[in-house]
Design goal:
The protein is of the alpha+beta class and 211 residues long. Helices cover 41% and strands 23% of the residues. The longest helix has 16 residues.
Length: 211
């Protein structure tokens, strides 16, 4: 494996090796069902542990997705250096503190340095990091850092807006509370006008889906 590939895998924070242990997850879920006083053998619950294990395999697939397979050679040499913005990318992730979902939209921009990435690949990079146990702040930084590693652009900007069900369903129970996080690199950090252009672009008509 080349040094560039190794750096890319480190930037993606991959877990290499075996797939998720569905039998172990299933056994743990059965134990939780019993621990709360339910009967894991009753008709409605008897296959729940198996279903939950399959669900986690899908929801947490981002730990093992190879960024090179995601890209599939979709980086192109293009003589273009103006801002590229992909906005309103829906994502679903699991908060690592309570394992409840947080749901929102990602907005991503970059200034190319002679290379652009296929349009569909940016949402797939968002999903690469969303499908993990996450905190929104770290996910925002990870998306930006991987794009910097992939494209070596003049700058990258990422903004995430999300509703966290751990504060909607439990605790403070604030249904309308939204969290916004951002990561700015290169030209977006150094040039206030570029940063404002991006923020103005994503604010026009933007808004989170209502639950």
């Amino acid at each position: 494996m080349s040094d560039n590939h190794e750096k890319l895998y480190r930037a993606a924070n991959l877990i290499r090796g075996s797939e998720i242990d569905k039998a172990r997850v299933s056994a743990a879920v059965a134990e939780i069902i019993a621990a709360i006083g339910e009967n894991p053998e009753r008709e409605g619950l008897v296959r729940t542990p198996e279903r939950v294990a399959r669900m986690y395999e899908e929801l947490l697939a981002g730990y093992r997705e190879d960024p090179l397979e995601i890209l599939n050679d979709a980086i192109f040499e293009v003589s273009y250096d103006e801002m590229v913005v992909v906005r309103d990318i829906e994502f679903y992730s699991l908060c690592e503190h309570h394992m409840l979902p947080f749901i929102g939209k990602a907005h991503v921009a970059y200034f190319p340095r002679g290379r652009v990435i296929g349009l569909s690949k940016i949402p797939r990079i968002v999903d690469l990091f969303a499908r993990r146990l996450q905190v929104q702040e770290r996910m925002t930084s990870q998306i930006a850092e991987l794009l910097m590693e992939l494209l070596n652009p003049h700058g990258v900007a990422v903004v995430l807006e999300a509703v966290h069900l751990c504060s909607v369903m439990r605790g403070v129970k604030k249904h309308d509370a939204r969290m916004t996080t951002s990561a700015m690199h290169g030209a977006f950090r150094k040039n206030p006008a570029s940063r404002q252009e991006f923020l103005d672009s994503i604010s026009r008509g933007s808004g989170l889906m209502r639950l």
